[in-house]
């Protein structure tokens, strides 16, 4: 028996649930009552992802936020009352923390060492890449020699955090060997008492248009940026992974919008299930299965996304770069004659 009346539930298969903050599945441990009398809401517990999420809502904090529980006629004994489940009663989340504007602004430079910037320059040209980086407020980190920072900027212009990822400048793919090079600005900065509440990547772009502008929701931040080039008439947002900011609170910014969800290959059914939480938020919700219908078995095994399909066909700039690699003298000719690629 535990020494404490209220403690984290001991692990058994199926006991962990989705985190109410970061949305990732099977990573949230609930608090339980050793005497099996009090039943806490599913928001009272701790997320396993201490660095990337850090959510931890204790029974003490729950009682503090719900003083009526301790003011019952039975002398204030909380063990005489069954607490409602989360569906019946909302538990307030900690106030979100933000990254300093100065930190963000300092990162919006040094693109000469940013591998993703180099890749997109080869693909779209430097002028278009600069436009996309400015639009999405993409930064450069000193970590790993210039990794990309995808800042999560909300509609109020506040930055919730920044995801740091390292890319291959030649392929534009994330570097995953010998390990996944992924981190977070709030973790790297060791900010005390930081409460992470993620928002969709690109959320600030919702302020640039009316609610009539259609929204495309994808998983990867890079995918949102790439697709903004190919299909600029839409607002491209990213959840930051299969779960990431895909929760009811974060998705509330899509109220009265027409939204199309475009999951990666292999994630369509999971997103179809999760789309239910958007039903009473959005004006219209569609889960696209276009990739599943078009993909080969090999592409499915690779878990490709919509940007991978669009990037399969080389752009005119990529074709030119290939020609220059085969014959470097071509670059000299272009420079000498001051030629410009017309796309």
Automatic annotation (TrEMBL):
Transmembrane segments: none annotated. Residues 4-67 form the Zinc beta-ribbon finger putative domain. This is Toprim domain-containing protein. It comes from Alistipes communis. Residues 114-265 form the DUF6371 domain.
